[in-house]
Amino acid sequence: MKSQPTTTLSLIWAILVILVAFAAPILAPFNPRQPVSDPLSIPSTTTVLGTDSLGRDLLSRLLYGARYSLGLSILAASITILAGGLIGLLAATFPGFPDRIILWILNSSLAIPGLLLAMVLVAGLGPGTSTVIIAVGIWGIPGFARISRTMFKQTLSMGYVDAVRALGGNWVWNSWFHILPNAGFRLIPLATVHVAWAFIGATTLTFLGFAGDPSLPEWGSMLNAGRLHLVQMPHLAILPGAAMSFTILSIHNLGTWLARISKPYSVH
Q: DSSP for 158-193?
């Protein structure tokens, strides 16, 4: 299937962000946490994008921001995918009362706004990047589990699963070697979209100050700090905001593209 220009641009941007995240210590000209010039200095040959309100190099903080923002979202999405996928698998493979109980818990959890749930978790556990990861990860579990349950049920309706059971395959064997591999290709688009949602959740919490460390070079924190200087130095907020927006859109577009190309192979 031929990819659209938006898909190509999304892939290029996503690869660029990943490369920057890995190479930030090499690419960044300065320590992102240490002042290097006067506060709110304009772009110059020394500081290409100028400095923030504490005199820290904006370019260095943007480069390291890719590492922190992407790292937080991927770790949070991993919690969502692993825990949500396991819950969905349990609900699908144990029909009847266990499935109804799990489904009731998931539906009840979806009635609670995700951001509110994450903020309650952060308030209980205390601010910090690890807390943000846990809160955002738990935030996405009900939605991922609900959809993955449906996908696993579709896979279970295939005849080969019953054949494996008839041959004596236990739940672990059947799940690991037959259900997960065959449902996995349809879970990849869902997992990709949840990375985008985790990115939104993580940067939202850091924007609200729940990361704990105000000096953290992370895009959400930088956007929060830059909004105080929109009049005299608007790029302090525009640049991290644009980086966040492009990254979220790129990951979401890639997830939509993966869902589209995998649709012909879906189980009906």
A: SHHHHHHHHTT--HHHHIIIIIHHHHHHHHHHHHHH
**For residue range 180-214, what is the model confidence (pLDDT) as tens digits?**
777 777 788 889 989 999 999 999 999 998 988 88
Residue 10 structure tokens: 């999304």
Q: What is the pLDDT of residues 83-93, one digit of tens each?
A: 998 898 888 88
CA triple 35-69-58, angle to 5 deg: 25
Task: Say if residues 201 and 115 touch (Cβ distance below 8 Å).
Answer: yes
> Is the pLDDT confidence value at 169 over 60?
no
Please determine, for residue 64, whether its predicted confidence score (pLDDT) is greater than 90.
yes
Q: What is the pLDDT of residue 23?
A: 95
SS3 225: helix
From CA 247, how far away is CA 244, in angstroms rounded?
A: 5
The residues with which 56 forms a beta bridge, in sequence order, are: 35
Q: Hey, where are the domains in the chain?
A: 7-13+56-265
pLDDT given for residue 206 in this prediction = 93
Contact, 69 vs 218, CB < 8 A? yes
Quote the CA–CA distance of 136 and 220 in Å, as a whole number: 14
Q: Which CATH class is domain 7-13+56-265?
A: mainly alpha
> CA 183, CA 191: separation in Å to the nearest integer?
12
Residue 68 pLDDT > 70: yes
How much is the CA Rg of the chain, to the nearest whole Å? 22
Nearest CA-CA partner of 112 in 76, 84, 138: 138
